[in-house]
Amino acid sequence: xxxxxxxxxxxxxxxxxxxxxxxxxxxxxxxxxxxxxxxxxxxxxxxxxxxxxxxxxxxxxxxxxxxxxxxxxxxxxxxxxxxxxxxxxxxxxxxxxxxxxxxxxxxxxxxxxxxxxxxxxxxxxxxxxx
Length: 130
Known about the structure:
Layout: H1 17-21, H2 34-47, H3 52-62, H4 71-95, H5 102-127
Helix pairs in contact: 4-5
């Protein structure tokens, strides 16, 4: 009786045995904190993969990394800074007894509209990530 047939259900019927018997010659060492190790073990339990080697191999080969483009968020923050600076200048002028012009208020409204458009686009892009 070979090693593979001792485990019930392994390998699956009609499976290509050569995949399971392939020699693995390369070793990768990774240092982890206790919390990182606990997270990995929790994910192993959730997936039903019993060996650390199999889990790490599966995640490295078939897993994916999410690389977020945060330029939309950075643009939103930039626009918010500009808008808040303008608003503070208008508030100071009003508190000093000066007048605020309709055009300045309209400029502020346009800036806020740009912020909403940028934020909406960013939120739609984030929502599309599955």
